[in-house]
Each structure stands twice: as structure tokens, then as C-alpha cells.
Write a structure and sequence with these properties.
six-stranded antiparallel β-sheet; 27% strand; alpha+beta; conserved putative lor/sdh protein from methanococcus maripaludis s2 fold; six-stranded antiparallel beta barrel; extended; OB fold (Dihydrolipoamide Acetyltransferase, E2P); single chain
């Protein structure tokens, strides 16, 4: 009995405890009731300050919900505390800054210079092509044995090069033996036969040996007539060679070229005859002096550099072709003391543009990509002639990390440069000339094009093909006799794209061809005599975010590249009156 009473008492205590835990906090305490209301009240200010952005265009920031002004998609709430950034600005977190070891430096005028205006160049040692020679075969034959087999082998004049079987040489030896027996009666014939062998580069000793022995050698030894280091073996044992065919290519490495790449903006600093001090990792404690002997008159379009060449004596065989070298040259023009200088690590160089990242907000990690114009490079610094101001704070370490982050966010970056001018501006610059007859026929074809455009808006691939075929057939009937080269090219490309759309039933592929079609047909429409008004409209997201245009007779945007997905994405960029 006592045990049962004890169990009952424990159960009652547990039950009371559980009840208090469940319902105790929901008691009628007026303070507790007021807490949620206070919490809601405290956050009302944040709700009022809520910003709205577009998931496809994060640079858009609106104070209230609505549609994206670029693509028409519904705006979504921005992150708490998010601030509007310019299209070319990127904001990083403090944690990301620390992990990437982002470092910045304030740009200032160059003060004292300890490099004495020296320009540093990087380059390589190359063989002196002025000393290159070729050892050729002077008669036709088959190489029975080749004694030079690999690059780098040293070949000296008079050294046995190969053994060759040459039917013409066998016959010439027999002629010499016969002429030798008649040299008293026919000295001219004898002399002619000997000269023939001399022209084939046989030595006097070889010719005398043949004459004295009276025997013909079928496999004849060939001796080198030039000296040098083998840079290329151009024949193999067993090959048949023709008269004059190269066997080996030789380089004389007693002198070599040191070739350096100079950037386009450095060209004015160099002239033929300038002294250049050259160092190499192979001999770090030695400095070699050379003289600039050649400046390439042609700029390399791929690297935007010119070749600066100096000739070096190499009788001690210190320089090997392919060896990396560094050259230092004192520029011919003096540096302005007030010029801005930046560390080389701050500059992203794309071959055509030089970019830096500037910290636009001194209190927050917000960065902006900026294009700059570089002057000379001196050691590890660049002169900046345009694009930066004294006092700007730029990124000097971690520049690539910020650029990669900008590219991932769809911002302007080194690899994702958005052109400052619309492509429509380039289209507008295309001046063409068309006859009235062409204009009339083209306007008729455009009516079918507009039906095809509407089919793209409706995402109806079958209708797109039908109207593309109709448009193509109308364009093919237009006379092209009076058209210029550019006009014909645009018309031909337009027909080619229409035919590609006709034979394709995949809507995405059709839209890809539609991009190229409009790049060719829109310039024509802008230059003909019009029968009605057209609007040139553009979607900035089409063509992999490069943008694409189309023609319409209505000002209202109906996007043919996305249809219902983003029907109103785009804008009118021009009109044809």
C-alpha cells in the first residue's frame, strides 16, 4: 500500500511540473503579453526601410515591391542592410576580405625615385638568325649513312656529314677517269669534267683520288661545307634527296640575340644604339652590356608589344637559346615628377585595357573597377597618366579575387567588360545605299519578318519556321545588281540565317540564329526608304547577356527572345521614322 501511495504521489508531482512548463509561460502576465507587440513595433522601422531588388539585375534597388525596370520580373526583398550599388561596384564582406588578404594603398604623386628612370624588360635569348646556315645536298641521291642525327650537335667544316649513293655522281666519276686519259688531246673536256665535280663541292683531294685510283665509288662520302650547331635535322638515313635539298640547319652561337617585349606605351622610350644591361638567372652575379640593334616596326596585335633586340657576343657559350633574361634600359624621355605611380600588382592587363579596383567608400569594403592609361613601367611600379586621382585608394593585393567575385555577380569585370556604348550605336554607323525598287521589295519582306517575330513572342517554333521561309523567299526575289559589297553581305547573311531558322525545329536554336539575323537585317532597315515607322528594340539579357535587337512596329515591348518568361524585358533604343 505504501509503495502504491508513493507511486501516485510521484505521478502527481510530475504531472503538475509538466503542466507548469506547458502553460506557465502563457499566463496572464500583462508584461509578457506586451512583448510581441513591442517586438513588432521595434521592427516596423526596418519594414519601412525594406529595399527590393531583381534577382537577375542586383544593381536595381527600389523602395517598394514591383517589376524590374530592365527585365520586368517581380522584385524580391533585398538582404537586410543591403545598399544600392552602382553597376560597376561590388561589396565584399569583412570575412571575405580577410580570407583573400585584400590590401589597399592610397595613390600619391611619385616623390623620390631610386630607379634613376630605368625601364625593366623581360625577354629570351634567341639564335642569331643572321648567322644561320643550311647544309644542302649538291646532287640527287639516297643517303646511305647520316652522321649528324640530333639537334645541338656541333658540325665543323670538312667533317664527314653523310655517305650517299648518287647515280649522277657515279657517272661523273667515270667521265673524269675517261677524260683523264684524254687530257693531253682534249684538255678542255678534262677541265670541264673537273669543274663539274668542283661545283658539286668535291674537294681537289677527292677529285685527284678518283683520277689517280681509276675506280668509281658508289657510296660517296659527303663533307660539311659550313660550321655551326645543328638546330634542325631535315633529312634521315635512307631518304632520297634532290639537288639543293637541305639536310641540316645550323646556327652559329658565337653571337646571339636577346629579344625583349616592350609595351605599346613604352615604344617612345627606346632607340637603336641605346645601351641595355642584361642579367639572367643562370648567372645572377653577372651583368652583361648590350646595344639595341633592332626595334620591330610591326606591333604584335595579340600581345600589344613590340620586339626590342640586342646582339650579344657568346664566344664563351654562356647564353643558351630559350634562356630567360631581364634587361634594364634608361628611357630617352624623362619622367614627370608629378605623375602618379601604382604597384604593378594593382594592375589587371587584358592586352588592350589596363584596369584597377578603387575603394569608393573609405568606411566600407565597396570597390569599383576603373580603366586606367599606363605610362612607363619602372621596376615594380607603373606610371598612370589617366584614370586615377591623387588620394584614390586602390587594391594592391587580391585584385584577381575581387575581379572574380565581380564576374560571378554579373558585374563589370576584366573578363566581362560591358561596352559603354550600345551595339546599336555601331549599327547606326553602318551607312548603306539602296534603290527605291529594293526598298519597296524589302518593305514587303519585312511584313513576313514581323509575323516571324510575333511567332517568337508566342514561342511557336512551327510558325517561326513557316514565316522564316516566307521571309527568305521574298528576300531571294529581290534584285541585287545595284548593291555594293557591304549591302550584298548583309542581305546574303540575312537569307542564310532565315534558311537556318526554317530548317530548325528547336526554339532555342532558332532564337540563336535570330540574333545574327537581326545584326544584319536591322542595318538594312535603317538605310532603306521606309513605308512605315519601325522601332529598334533591345533585350540586354539575350545572347548570353551581350544583348540583342529586333524590329517592331509597336512601341510596346514584347520580347521575342524569351516570350512569356520575360515578355516585357527590353527597351526601345532607336526608331526609324
Amino acid at each position: 500500500m505504501k509503495k502504491n501511495i508513493l507511486y501516485i504521489a510521484i505521478a502527481v508531482i510530475i504531472g503538475l511540473g509538466a503542466g507548469w512548463l506547458i502553460f506557465g509561460n502563457s499566463s496572464g502576465d500583462p508584461e509578457n503579453k506586451d512583448m510581441p507587440e513591442m517586438s513588432n513595433h521595434d521592427h516596423s522601422g526596418e519594414t519601412a526601410a525594406q529595399m527590393w531588388t531583381c534577382s537577375m539585375h542586383p544593381q536595381i534597388m527600389q523602395p517598394e515591391a514591383g517589376d524590374c525596370p530592365i527585365c520586368g520580373m517581380d522584385l524580391i526583398p533585398a538582404e537586410a542592410g543591403a545598399e544600392g550599388l552602382a553597376a560597376n561596384e561590388i561589396k565584399m564582406t569583412e570575412n571575405a576580405m580577410a580570407l583573400a588578404n585584400i590590401q589597399t594603398t592610397i595613390v600619391g604623386n611619385a616623390q623620390a625615385r631610386d630607379d634613376d628612370g630605368m625601364i625593366s624588360l623581360s625577354g629570351k635569348i634567341a639564335a642569331n638568325e643572321e648567322n644561320n646556315t643550311v647544309q644542302a645536298s649538291y646532287f640527287k641521291g639516297r643517303i646511305e649513312r647520316l652522321n649528324v642525327n640530333y639537334e645541338g650537335q656541333q658540325l665543323n667544316r670538312g667533317q664527314l656529314l653523310a655517305t650517299i649513293y648518287a647515280p649522277d655522281l657515279v657517272a661523273a666519276q667515270q667521265e673524269l677517269i675517261t677524260a683523264a686519259s684524254l687530257k693531253e688531246s682534249q684538255p678542255a673536256l678534262y677541265k670541264a669534267v673537273r669543274n663539274k665535280l668542283k661545283n658539286w663541292k668535291l674537294s681537289e683531294n677527292q677529285i685527284n683520288t678518283i683520277e689517280e685510283s681509276g675506280t668509281v665509288r658508289e657510296n660517296f662520302p659527303i663533307y660539311a661545307t659550313v660550321s655551326g650547331t645543328v638546330s634542325e635535322v631535315m633529312a634521315a638515313q635512307g631518304d632520297y634527296v634532290n639537288q639543293g635539298q637541305p639536310i641540316v640547319k645550323l646556327s652559329n652561337l658565337n653571337s646571339v640575340w636577346a629579344e625583349f617585349d616592350a609595351y605599346e606605351n613604352q615604344i617612345a622610350q627606346f632607340s637603336v644604339g641605346q645601351k641595355i644591361n642584361i642579367t639572367t638567372n643562370a648567372y645572377p652575379n653577372k651583368e652583361f652590356e648590350g646595344t639595341i640593334s633592332f626595334i620591330d616596326p610591326i606591333l604584335n596585335n595579340a600581345t600589344r608589344t613590340v620586339t626590342i633586340r640586342a646582339t650579344l657576343q657568346n664566344r664563351d657559350d654562356l647564353f643558351k637559346p630559350g634562356m630567360f633574361v631581364t634587361g634594364k634600359v634608361k628611357g630617352t624621355t624623362q619622367t614627370m615628377e608629378s605623375s602618379l605611380t601604382v604597384p604593378a600588382s594593382a594592375v589587371l592587363w587584358t592586352g588592350e585595357r589596363s584596369l584597377v579596383y578603387v575603394k569608393t567608400n573609405p568606411n566600407e569594403p565597396v570597390f569599383e573597377m576603373r580603366e586606367v592609361t599606363l605610362g612607363n613601367r619602372s621596376g615594380e611600379t607603373y606610371q598612370v597618366s589617366a584614370g586615377l586621382n591623387n588620394g584614390d585608394e586602390i587594391v594592391t593585393n587580391g585584385t584577381f579575387t575581387i575581379d572574380a567575385a565581380a564576374q560571378l555577380q554579373g558585374k563589370k569585370s576584366m573578363m566581362n567588360q560591358q561596352m559603354m556604348q550600345d551595339k546599336s550605336a555601331m549599327i547606326d554607323d553602318m551607312k548603306m545605299s539602296f534603290s527605291n525598287a529594293f526598298s519597296s521589295d524589302f518593305n514587303e519582306a519585312i511584313q513576313s519578318y514581323l509575323k516571324m517575330k510575333d511567332a517568337f513572342v508566342a514561342s511557336d517554333a512551327g510558325q517561326v519556321s513557316d514565316f522564316a521561309k516566307e521571309t527568305s523567299e521574298k528576300l531571294k526575289t529581290i534584285s541585287t545588281e545595284d548593291l555594293g559589297t557591304m549591302e550584298k553581305k548583309h542581305l546574303t547573311k540575312s537569307i542564310e540565317m532565315l534558311d537556318a531558322i526554317t530548317t530548325n525545329d528547336n526554339l532555342e536554336n532558332q532564337r540563336t540564329h535570330f540574333v545574327i539575323l537581326n545584326e544584319n537585317i536591322v542595318p538594312i532597315a535603317m538605310n532603306i526608304e521606309k513605308s512605315k515607322n519601325y522601332y529598334i528594340q533591345k533585350c540586354p539579357m539575350a545572347n548570353n547577356n551581350k544583348g540583342a535587337v529586333w524590329l517592331s512596329t509597336e512601341e510596346e515591348i514584347k520580347n521575342p527572345y524569351y516570350g512569356d518568361v520575360m515578355l516585357t524585358c527590353g527597351s526601345v533604343i532607336d526608331s526609324i521614322q
